[in-house]
Design brief:
Elements: H1 2-7, H2 18-25, E1 33-36, H3 44-54, E2 60-64, H4 69-77, E3 82-85, H5 90-109
Parallel strand pairs: 1-2, 2-3
Length: about 110
């Protein structure tokens, strides 16, 4: 995903686990976080929950091969509104990122 997004013109910073992301998030909040539910250490859901507590306006996109109604409910319960099933389709990912980018820009103007 890193290479794909960079080729599409996105500035990407990757982290191997939730702890590393949380440490970096404290220094500089990104425009968007893309998390997988299944991550080493703190999983994506717990990472998202911590991020949302630190910054309720954080924009998080969750990826997961687990996309049943229970997973969707869990994702929403931690404050994440966007879930894309894995394997993702490039067009779906790009369309979602475009929508989220517009959403972020609108909130910056407020």
């Amino acid at each position: 995903i890193e290479n794909f997004l960079e080729k599409e013109g996105y500035e990407v910073e990757c982290f191997g686990d939730g702890e590393s992301l949380l440490e970096a998030f404290g220094k500089k909040a990104p425009d968007l976080c893309i998390l997988d539910i299944m991550m080493p250490g703190i999983d994506g859901l717990e990472t998202a929950e911590i991020l949302m507590k630190k910054d309720p306006d954080a924009t998080i996109l969750m990826l997961s091969s687990l996309c049943d109604s229970g997973t969707l409910e869990e994702v929403r319960s931690v404050g994440v509104k966007y879930l894309i099933p894995k394997p993702w389709e490039d067009e779906v990912l790009l369309a979602t990122l475009d929508m989220l980018k517009k959403h972020c820009e609108e909130h910056k103007e407020d």
